[in-house]
């Protein structure tokens, strides 16, 4: 798996050095940013039934985020 950097330290998959420790990374275009995909992505299945094209990196978002338990 490639090294994935993430600066969202309140994510359950965040690791030292801003490393993402999720087994699976789900990235979508912004038009799906608020979609309720009704599943957790790290280590589980996720929506692969559609394909989109992003104009640039600013038009993408990570759906893997899961808030860290306190």
UniProtKB/TrEMBL annotation:
Pfam families registered for this protein in UniProt: DUF1540 (PF07561)
DUF1540 domain residues: 4-65
Superkingdom, taxonomy of origin: Bacteria
InterPro entries assigned to the protein according to its UniProt record, in alphabetical order: DUF1540 (IPR011437)
Name the record gives this protein: DUF1540 domain-containing protein
Organism: Paenibacillus lutrae
